[in-house]
Specification:
phosphatase activity; PGM_Phosphatase; 5-stranded mixed beta sheet; Histidine phosphatase family protein; 5 strands; alpha/beta; 6 helices; Rossmann fold; globular
């Protein structure tokens, strides 16, 4: 199976370097351009299905990319990490906190533990591996794409998440 991971296009919060988490924010003008750019790059690929997070920025990115050529199925396993009280906090303020200490399963201020994100990614991959799909498009978010990446390459350790930084509107291709 070929799987193409795409991080949603840019939003105003991305542009301002503000943490989004599960806040449901739309694509901005640059994000729309990024989505159309991805569409152009993969226009000759016939996807069996597209899975997307249910959040607006991912779903809108998926709709632009697929252009009605395949079904889009939303899946809650693909939603971004819930950042709790850190939602909509400027990144410079946010990075002062230690909840990115990935050696511990920190869960305070209603922040989703990184290990849970990793488990969601693993569960999603197990579900699609048990399908008959040959070519799959997944449109999701920063943290979940990180977790999918490390699950796909077989590095089953959530402490590795910080070493891979998926960019807005970029394509990551894998064979699983």
């Amino acid at each position: 199976m070929m799987i193409y991971l795409v991080r949603h296009g840019q939003t105003d919060l991305n542009k301002k370097n503000v943490m989004q988490g599960v806040s449901d924010t739309p694509l901005n003008e640059e994000g729309l351009k990024q989505a159309y750019n991805v569409k152009e790059k993969i226009k000759n690929i016939n996807f069996d299905i597209c899975f997307s997070s249910p959040l607006k920025r991912t779903l809108d990115t998926a709709k632009i990319i697929t252009d009605g050529k395949c079904n889009i199925v939303t899946n809650n396993l693909l939603i971004e990490r819930d950042l709790g009280r850190f939602e909509k906090m400027p990144y410079d303020d946010y990075k002062k906190y230690d909840f990115w200490n990935l050696k511990e399963n920190l869960n305070y201020n209603k922040v989703e533990p990184v290990k849970n994100v990793f488990k969601r990614a693993k569960k999603f991959l197990k579900e699609i591996k048990n399908s008959d799909y040959k070519t799959v498009l997944v449109v999701s978010h920063h943290a979940i794409i990180r977790a999918l990446h490390f699950n796909i390459i077989g590095y089953d350790d959530s402490t590795s998440l910080l070493s891979f930084h998926p960019e807005n509107g970029k394509i990551y291709k894998y064979e699983i």
